[in-house]
Amino acid sequence: MEVYSNENEQIDAVKQFFAQNGKALVIGVIIGIGALAGWRYWSSHEDGGSRQASASYQQVSTALDASKPATLDAAAKFARENSNTYGALASLDLAKRYVDANQLDKAAEQLQVGLKDTNDANLQAVMNMRLARIQLQQKKPDEVLKTLDSVKGDGWTAIVADVRGEALLSKGDTHGARDAWSKGIASDASPALKEMLQMKMNNLPG
Question: Does residue 59 fall inside a structural domain?
Fold first, then answer.
């Protein structure tokens, strides 16, 4: 099982799969997370429509450039017209560009669009984590906590605990933050992530 060191590498792994398997229909996404996450896809034959969607996704994804609004509009149009995994991935790509441009409202909106385009719990978990981090930047801790409740799977425990602790701390709930980070440390997380959570706990008042 391949293990990836951060969420960006998870997304890169997804894109690489689609690039190398343009003639396959993804029927499962299984994330095995030891440190943070690992992606492995299983597939079967896809029809002509899926092949076209795959090619179109690769085209709009490659062309995305935050300095060129037309490419963002094209990606948004593709996401709206493709209620499938390709549409969800396009929304994920587009949301990143909006974050880079500090357009957090648009990024959050795009992720919410993408979440409706896939029924795969693992891909939804990635998107919900991205959404929670954006909501944290927007200083919306209650929305962060609600979004994190949608992330399922033991492999996400430490990552969810990290963001949950930050959200609770922003609400002034020091005890809640300490409890969240303690659960992350007790999980099967990477040593680096556990060390980071421990440092956050050590810096808490009291």
Answer: yes
